[in-house]
Amino acid sequence: MSTTCIIRGNVPLISETFLSAHVERLKGEKVILYNYFPEYTFNGRAVRYFYTQRPLAAKLKRLLPVFLYDKLVTAHEQSDARTVGFMAAFFEKHKVDVILAEYGFNGADITPVAKQLGIPLVVHFHGHDAHRQPDLEPYKDRYQEMFAYASRIASVSHFMTETLVGMGADPNKITYNPYGAREYFYDVQPDYQSCTLLTLGRFADIKAPYLSLMAFRKALETVPQAKLVMIGDGPLQEACWSLAQTWGIGDSVSFPGALTHSEAMPFLNKSAAFVQHSVTTSYGDAEGMPNSILEAGAAALPVVSTRHAGISTSVIDETTGFLVDERDVDGMASRMVQLLLDPQLCRTMGLAARGHIRKNYNIDQHINTLQNLIESARKSPERQKTQ
User: Fold this and answer.
1) Mean pLDDT computed over every residue of the chain
2) 386: confidence class by pLDDT, cuts 50, 70, 90
3) What is the pTM of this model?
4) Contacts (Cβ under 8 Å, ≥6 apart) of 287
5) Are the C-beta atoms of residues 61 and 69 closer than 8 Å to each other?
6) Rounded to an integer, what distance in angstroms lies between the CA atom of residue 345 and that of residue 339?
7) How many Å separate Cα 61 from the centre of its chain?
8) Confidence at residue 62, expressed as pLDDT on a 0 to 100 scale
């Protein structure tokens, strides 16, 4: 029996539905490890406690006081060989023959173990793991080892692929694998007459929600009946709420918080267009392929966004929506007004967006591509050497 071990880091955010799709849809046996090396957990239990090659450890845990046992385990964990032993026991017990690391950081952390045990590694990059410079700096050397060992690497945008190649990844190992919208988004029937704009995503620096809010404030001068719904949470949420109150537009902007897909559906149905002002930060962070934009397009909403990373291909300017330069608040406001005053244009662009997403960002295609990468890794030379 073959088993794929998926390493996910922390429990995914509510916005990271693409990670849930991998667990739900990939074929075959799967085991999921959370947290970060070497502090992995499986089914809520620490791997280091429950997967050891020394039966004595289990006896000691029953006999020794907790603080003495923990002290003993900590001493053991100072040895790299001991940590590899825990992981080897886990992989052997669960018949793991390939590892899928979600995010490059997790791939880099597990590479030495995978390499020592001869288990093929597939690394799926998603965004900040390729672009956020402060986080990448400590991983420079580890990324090089990962690039050299990994059987396959998945990238969600052409922009990301270029970045990974520039960092030293072999382009022959990289496969373009953008996300896909789930089927129920295609059932949404937007109310293009509503004069409501929607944002959906983390209130984070790369999404610059305050710039969408600034653009909406300008749009209100021409379309005073317009509304903006900003779904999500994050470090910039309170600042955006405060700006809306300070500018006196609080009655026109609502903040429902982080919502599941099912909770967000009514808002999609009651919107005329989707907006997102993604930017490259001063510290180099950038989007991968924003899933919310793909979902909005699948829901037949025209998108107003920026010429940024994967957005430049997921939105066809002047066909499925409008693109403006990063930080062009006036340009975004103008496009908002254009759509708010023309429901038929919203419908035409929205239906074009639905067709574009269905054809080019299909979730079945995304999962099939990843499945093929995993199966290809199983047959890789690294795996053959261990058999």
Assistant:
1) 90
2) very low
3) 0.87
4) 127, 157, 206, 207, 278, 308, 309, 310, 311
5) yes
6) 7
7) 38
8) 55
